Amino acid sequence: MKLKKSTINNLISYGVVIVAFIVCQAMISSGAMSRSLKGQMVPICVYIVMAISLNLVVGISGELSLGHAGFMSIGAFSAIIGAAWLRAALGIENEILLLVLSMIVGGAFAGIFGVLIGIPVLRLRGDYLAIVTLAFGEIIRNVLNCLYFSLEGSRLHVSFNNPSIPGTILLNGPNGAKDVAKIATFPVGFVLILFTLFVVMNLVNSRSGRAIMASRDNRIAAEAMGINVTKYKMMAFVTAAVLAGMAGALYGLNFSTVAASKFKFDTSILVLVFVVLGGIGNIWGSIIAATLLTVLPELLRAFADYRMLVYAIVLILVMLATNNPFIRSLFDRLIHRGRSAQTQRGGAAE
Amino acid sequence: MTENTQKKRMLDTKMVPAPSHGIIPERDLNSTPVLEARHLGIEFGGLKAVDDFNLIIGKTEIAGLIGPNGAGKTTVFNLLTKVYQPTMGTIMVNGKDTAGMNTVQANKLGIARTFQNIRLFDNMTVEDNVRIGLHNQVRYGMFTGILRLPAYWKQEKAQHEKALELLSLFDMQDLAGTRAGSLPYGAQRRLEIVRALATNPSLLLLDEPAAGMNPHETEELMRNIIRIRDRFQIAIMLIEHDMNLVMGICEGICVLNYGRIIAKGTADEIQANPTVIEAYLGKKKEG
Could you tell me if the ipTM is greater than 0.85? Predict the structure, then answer.
């Protein structure tokens, strides 16, 4: 019954995402969607994936990571360079294939850095871990600011702090990448969301996922039960890094110019805000919060200068509301009712 | 006294009749002890919390560790489970030296424990808590889990059945879907025992299993401890303040005071020991 329930929940989640995608596509093709919102579709997908992956670290594994944008930027730039190289060296012209391959490249590089950063970082706990992830996020950005990549034929050239390298410049230090082929599309973003949901939800409902949550809930007890806490924290951290790298790849290939300054500390915090507002550990909350908060600034554009003020006030109100005992108990009751309805349904199914 | 412990004793049948009688005579008394602690000790900045702790626990033996508050009983458990690294002495589990091992490795070697202040995974269901205990007996990796390959379904099913079977030891199988944190106190203690048993130990350490239980529940717990020992053929070591429980089921008792063993022996020997009466039982009677 337990297995069935989790499977049914997963299927419902995929279903909702698919329906949302069809609605958006219909709106785009019928012209019901404004031009500016249409331009937001890929970033929304990117931020949803970022929020779900950060939720894996913050919510499921219980470690506050403040450098998630770092993995996003690694994904973005390795995908931009990867896409150019794949096109030049292997002659891949099919844009979707190129995009998927570049996303894999982005995810792989972010994963490698996830391992490298995870080794020292996951030895720390609590505030210290948060501070060090913040630092790594900034280190990645500053290193990218000094990196120069160029492509000469099918040969890649790299230099550090020295812009004079042969061939066409792909990544120009602090100026970032220019004239990037904009191959990211909304359908691919949608598939990436489905992929992320698939990975995260299946992971949570597996042996590894339970071990990750046990390490979060009670480290000492988890170790006494023979669970290698560091290994499972690492698993969550690296999986999140890979997903963030793929999201970054999609993001990087959606704009013609991408600079490392786009992946500042603010971006990490923005994604964290999605996770916190959506409810830590709540994947659907992350998706909704990421969508609303990406769209909201666009919708508030009419207020021009005041929109960030309104945005901040909305955030504060939501935080106050979620900490209000009355509203909390109301939510608890709603959730409780939902749960009991679910168990009834499960019982009936049996 | 050490000779006394090495000599395996018959169960004191005062409180618990029949069931285990059939088991004990069949014990292989010459086999490697489950636990062998020699000159075990730990210092915290000059303070010797545990000093020169020597103990041998044979296969399927039930041992009690008693002593006044602050005597270092839980510290001994933390040393045995490698939560603390001992500064002196050795611990052998099933004949293997545990020097340099961590808690996870000690568990894999066969030591499982419960905690004095219950440490369940409160936000997980009762069944998932047991599944965490079964973690190392299930062998499928992260990718099998994500891709839900046939091995995933097969092993999840086996794990589910095994978890329910273990829960049925304490008639808790109907609570499988309940949040562990919302269980009543006694049930939480029982769940901790089930979770520890799920790790397939050869030595089960119970830290105050009867704390907060009424006499009726304690009696039931005593029967269950014997039942668990008989069924799983494991050694059990327990810390407890309830003397009825300790004297009723422990075949060997070890008394700790100020981090040192002051007496070892059977229930009758301990009760008659003047040092123990002075340090512990005597005071308690007066109080």
Answer: no
